[in-house]
Amino acid sequence: MASLQTLLETGEAIPHGACMGWRSELISLHVVSDVIIAASYLSIPIVLAVFVSRRPDMMFGWVAWAFAIFLVACGLAHLLDIWTMWYPHFAAEGLAKALTAVTSLATAIVLWPLLPKALKIPSADELRHAVEALRLQIRERDLALKALEREREERRRAEDMLRQAQKMEAIGQLTAGIAHDFNNLMTAVIGNLERARRLLPQDGSRQLARAIRGAALGAERAGVLTHRLLAFGCRQPLAPNVMNVNDVLEHLADTLRRTLGGTIRVVSNLTFDLWPTKVDADALESAILNLAVNARDAMPEGGNLVITTRNVAAGDGLIAELGLAAGDYIEIAVADTGIGMSEEVASRAFEPFFTTKPLGEGSGLGLSQAYGFAVQSDGTAVLDSTPGEGTTVKLYLPRAQVAATPVAARSFAPGLLTNAAACP
Q1: Core-most of 17, 157, 184, 299, by most CB within 10 Å?
Q2: Which pTM does this prediction carry?
Q3: How far apart are CA 4 and CA 308, in angstroms?
Q4: pLDDT along the chain (424 residues), means of 10
């Protein structure tokens, strides 16, 4: 305590102003400079304190506090320089400088070990590049997620197609078996009816003769039904020939224009260089007629029936999507502008005997016959329908590698369209 009192005694000391001869210009120069420096030193710690308090996540925040203490000590030293201009309290000034020395030394000591860590902090350019790299990774991840979602969707569609194919195969096998047995029974019925007709005396009962003819007509219709069931089950004997189906479709389109009625406009959009295919012409005509009847029934107020053909190359992704064997195919599309089908109805449209029409107005075998014909011809059939917009049925048939032979034109009676089986 005595040492501190001795240190603070001014004794013979004289203020700094006396050393300057009390020249006002020199005193003013020092005082103004010290005031500005002190104000700056004391304001900077305030800025640092506000910044660190609002950014607690900042690295090395404690360094800012060390700088703040150092700057406060420097500002205090400059204020004491102003004071000693008139009062010789040099001990207080020395103590302020000692405090400044201690804080500056401590700050310097902690800064040097901190330098390697500070140099490892990424620069603005490095951070910018890192952000761009992160954005690229996020974009790649999003693309990968979209690709994964597409793959899942494709796998789901493939599984649905596989289940549908398995279901249709099972229904086809069951239907074909029943149709085969039914056909054998109807053969016996028709044979016995024919025998009964022959054994009937010439002057026999006319009512009995009419009954036999009616029974025979019903048996023949049952035979036609059996024929269509066998077509769906891929058990119907076919006589395929290599041909250009455009020949068949052109003649068939002319017949449809004459028989479908004036309210339905038949449009043919056939590819000029369509590839040949090997199919049964009669089965193809039957399939297209059934599709045309379905289109007519779906357009009670009239509309457009468009028949289109095109080539589908082996590299087209549609081939794999449909589960067809690799190779070239032709596509026959029959589209209408009718009432369309719901998704539930469309999923069952190829099933035999499935129909949405009232009892007695449709057998539900038209689409199943077209499907069976396409599958038995080593192709397939697909249906695309939207309620209120129409339905499109597409038949895919494999390309034949030999030249096609012309198909002779044939005429079709209007009764074919009247008696054709209708589907949903």
Answers
A1: 299
A2: 0.48
A3: 112
A4: 55 76 86 88 84 77 79 85 83 80 81 75 81 91 90 80 63 61 71 75 70 75 62 59 90 83 86 90 85 86 91 89 89 92 82 61 67 86 90 93 60 42 38
Alpha carbons 26 and 24: distance in angstroms, whole number: 5
Locate tokens 């599709």: which residue? 291
CA distance 403 to 242: 7
d(CA 124, CA 171): 69
Q: Which two tokens mark 224? A: 């036609």
Dihedral pair phi/psi, residue 279, rounded to 5°: -145, 170
Q: Amino acid identity, residue 364?
A: G
Residues pairing with 331 in the sheet = 310, 396
Alpha-helical runs (H) found in 271-328: 281-298, 317-321
* Residue 227: φ, ψ to 5°: -60, -45
Cβ(372)–Cβ(231) under 8 Å?
yes
**Most distant pair of Cα atoms in the chain: their distance:** 170
φ, ψ for residue 402, nearest 5 deg: -120, 165
Q: Could you tell me if 398 and 377 are in contact, meaning their C-beta atoms sit under 8 angstroms apart?
A: yes
Cβ-based neighbour number of residue 198 at 10 Å: 7
Q: Rounded to an integer, what distance in angstroms lies between the CA atom of residue 363 and that of residue 419?
A: 10
Bridge partner list, 309: 332
Tokens, residue 179: 């149709």
Say if residues 27 and 85 touch (Cβ distance below 8 Å): yes
Number of helices (H) and strands (E), helices first, in the chain? Answer: 13, 7
* DSSP letter, residue 362: -
- Measured between alpha carbons, how far is 381 from 338 in angstroms, rounded to an integer? 19
Angle 182-187-193 (CA atoms, 0-180°, nearest 5)? 125
Q: DSSP of 230-261, one letter per residue?
A: HHHTT-S----EEE-HHHHHHHHHHHHHHHS-
Residue type for position 110:
V
CA distance 332 to 309: 5
Comparing CA positions, the residue from 267, 236, 277, 281 lying closest to residue 410 is 281
The pLDDT score that the predictor gives to residue 166 is 60
Which tokens belong to 260? Answer: 């479908």
Cα(first)–Cα(last) distance of the chain, in Å? Answer: 113
CA distances from residue 288 to 337, 351, 367, 387 in whole angstroms, order as listed: 17, 17, 10, 22
402, amino acid identity: V
**Cα Rg of the chain (Å, integer):** 49
